[in-house]
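It is worth pausing here to work through a concrete case rather than discussing structure prediction in the abstract. The textbook approach is simple: state the sequence, then state the predicted structure, then interpret. We follow exactly that order.
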Amino acid sequence: MTDQHQILRSTRLVTLVTLVSRVLGYVRDLLIAILLGTTLAADAFVIAFRIPNLLRRLMAEGAMTGAFIPVFTSWRIERPEAESWEFARRMFWTLATVGLGVTLVGIIAAPWLVRAFTAFSPDPQQWSLAVLLTRITFPYCVLIALTALAGAILNSLRVFGLPASVPIYLNLAIIAGAVTAWRMELAEPALALATGVVLGGVLQLAVQLPALARRGMRFGVKVDFRHPGIRRVARLMLPAFAGVGIYQINVLVSTMFASTSEGWISALYYADRVMELALGVYAISVATVVLPVMAQQAAEKKLDDMRDTLGFALRNVGFIVVPAAVGLMVLRDPIVRVLFQHSAFEATSTELTSWALLFYALGLPAIAAVRLVVPAFYAVQDTVTPVRVAALSLGVNIVFCFLLVGPLRQGGLALATSLAAYVNLLVLYGLFRRRLGMLSEKRLAVSLARTMLAAGGMGLGCWWLANKVELMEITAFGVLLGWFAATLVLGMLLYLGLAWLLRAEELGEFYTLVTGRRVRPRVPSVQAAVPSAPKQE
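Step two, the predicted structure:
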């Protein structure tokens, strides 16, 4: 089996599991919207949840995964298996020790952390609930750190399904907290939600430990800051920590601006959640799978293969993410209304959220591409370059926040994020090209052009149908849901049809993603569209 076919098959599994997680994540966010709307309590919960989310990004999608997988892969190639598992065991307990220290400091420093996020707020006293919620949720930080390490070890062993499933348990725990708050009619339902976050962290870690034990991991306590593997991971993580610090400043700046008007923080959160649904179901799934593959290729000095893997990932992610971005922009109002407009989440909340979603969606392709290019640097154990580029994009984001928040309100903050993502992508790719060589740029450009043409046609079709049936004028929710679903299905069929007419080679790879099989000659439409696609052996 080729690396590319293996990537598609593994991505299929991760995507299916992630899709379940994202659906539950939507249920979670819907319940939060029903309970809290875009009120001050909602803003307080979002602020409190930002810190554990930051640690999740740091560990699961950033410094931990990016630093540990290449080092652990090298150890497995170069050393006996017993030494590799001893390295993993010591890493686990050393990380647990550091995580506990960070958690204690965070609980103590919660008032100052919240104040930093709300520095532009005219009334600092109104954020006392956010302080309490931050203290409740902070233990999640050490839990997600260990969860991410467990997932990184399993990913290194090419086990992807279980680590991809762990967010399901977090979502279920928060859903349970929301249902409890509703059934018991709690005066502060956000407290139950915060408790659910911590319970979810416990479950996420617990479900992975048996899988590690079956593969040879031992859990006897052994803290070792001097172990050469741990020291190597730490050296690689330090620049990535700086990168997350830069990301945190980005979030901090946006939140400070958003805190000047009630509802902006939560509107940006809900819009970001919709965008993360499109991003996480496929783009992050691909990034999860390709990092161990590129790390092994780099360890074996197969740089040509690594470039091919990155180009393959960029083409396939673009084929999914570009039409998703177009769909989010064209159908943003009905999307937000269908997903969230219930109970405390009123029409004004929909207006606030959909306006932010428009500008977030513009940056979706760049954000997805960055999620793939950064792991390419991690694969060659370079965590410094992404940080330097992130610092540049931070400056771009801050400048655009100042320039755009006035005329575009919360939409300006979302647009600043998108513009900074494009700067990040262009500079990162330029540095990758100079250091590690060119991808197949002509092939990539042709693929992107075809994808954009097909997505543009799909967008026009969705816009025409939405206006024809006056989608936003429909008041009955069942009728709205029916027409909205029909618009999505017709849009997807139109996109795939246009991609077939344009002979998009990714269509054959999309077939593999959906079915788990290579293109067969008995599928004439796909085989005709992709004459170069590999036949089933």
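Step three, interpretation. The CA atoms of residues 303 and 329 lie 38 Å apart. Residues 521-537 have pLDDT under 50 and may be disordered.
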